Amino acid sequence: MGLGGRKSSGIKSDINVVYRQYGGEQDMHYVMELVDNELSEPYSIFTYRYFLHNWPKLCWLAFDSTHCFGVVVCKADDHRGVQRGYIAMLVVEHEYRGLGVGTMLVKRAIEEMIAADADEVVLEAEVTNSGALALYRNLGFLRDKRLIRYYLNGADAFRLKLLLPVPEHRRMEHDAVAQMAALSAA
Amino acid sequence: MESEDCAWLDIEALIQDAAEELQEGELLHDEHFSLYEAMSAVEIGDPKLDAGMCTTSESSSIREVVPAASLSSSDALAVADRLFAAEATWHQGSNLAQTVLTCLYILQPGSSEGHVVLYAMCKATHATCIAVRDLVLAGNVCEDEDFVLHTFGMQVDLGLRDADVSALAALSLAEEALEALQQQAKGKSSAGVATGQAILQEHVAGFLARVRFRRALLKGLQRIQKSTKQDQDFARKQFVAALQELENMRASSHPRPEDAVGFSPDVNRRLMAPVPPRNVTFLTSQQTWDHYAKLLQHLLLVGDVVKVSSYEELKAFLTDFSRQPCSGIPRSALHLAISGKVTRPGEPLGPWLPRKPMLCAAMRMPSTALPCADASLFIDQACLAVAGWCQDMCLNRARQRRRHRRTVEDWAHLWDHAANADASPEFQAWMAEHGWQWQMKGSDPQGPCGCWVEKECASMLLQHLQLGFELDVYAPEEYCMLFWYCDFLHGVIEVNAQDLLKAMPPLGFKPPQNPTGKAVKKKAEVCKKNASKGPSLEHALRTEAQTAGVERLVCQAQMRLAAGLLASGQLPPYPAPFNSEAQRFEQRFGFMHRLHRPEPLAFDQYARSVDISTCTAESILLSATEGFCEARRVLTMLLRLAGEDNRPEHRSDHLQALLRISSQNMVAVKVLHDAEKAQKTATDATAESAGGIDGSSEKDADRESQPKDEPERSGQKAGSGERANQGKEAAGPEWTVQYDFAHHPHYPVLRLKHAALSKK
Question: Rounded distance, CA B319 to CA B301, Å?
Answer without folding.
Answer: 13
